[in-house]
Amino acid sequence: MSYSNATAVSSFIKTNLQTNAFLNNGTVYVNLDSYWDSLSDAQLVAFASLCHSNGQKAGIYWTPFVFWELPARARIGR
Known about the structure:
Blueprint: H1 3-17, E1 29-32, H2 41-53, E2 57-60, H3 72-75
Parallel strand pairs: 1-2
């Protein structure tokens, strides 16, 4: 995921979906899934600002205790 892709999605939703009544009781959510943490703090703030200016609510998925690396046993012998 990149900053340019994330902002492009927000713009696409505003232009193509919100104008066609794609709303959840008047609210549109744009959430970043995996790899949102690859964006800098400044990019996350800019993304949220863009979403808000597009009439959307920005969010991220975050799950505590998720481990994306290989278990220590799988790394033995590398």
